[in-house]
Specification:
By secondary structure, this protein is mainly α. It contains 5 helices and 2 strands; from the N terminus they run ββααααα. Helix 2 packs across helix 3.
């Protein structure tokens, strides 16, 4: 969960991003730099959000939610191990197998 850094007694200076949100934003920036995602608006709208959601995640005001994490892993082959800090490889080479739960 994001925590607030304070300047003085009660003045919030900024919010720290959660580790997963930070890695999500790094992966999203990589997708953008490779031209896979044109801009953050396009990415956000693909999953039913507006650009402010991505801006808030980037600024540490909001943590990345499940649907955006799932989307970036499923649709863009981002390595889930990267998002959780278990790998330095942003992208996976083979798709994750679907697990069927009865």
């Amino acid at each position: 969960m994001a925590s607030t850094k304070k300047k003085g007694k009660d003045t919030p200076l900024y919010k720290e991003k959660s580790f997963i949100s930070h890695r999500f934003m790094l992966a999203l920036k990589e997708l953008k730099s490779r031209g896979v995602v044109r801009d953050y608006r396009e990415f956000a709208q693909r999953y039913g959000y507006d650009t402010s959601t991505i801006t808030n995640i980037s600024n540490g005001l909001q943590v990345v939610n499940h649907s955006l994490l799932l989307g970036i892993v499923k649709d863009f082959k981002v390595n889930p191990d990267y998002l959780f800090g278990q790998s330095d490889k942003v992208f996976r080479k083979v798709p994750v197998r679907k697990i069927i739960i009865d």
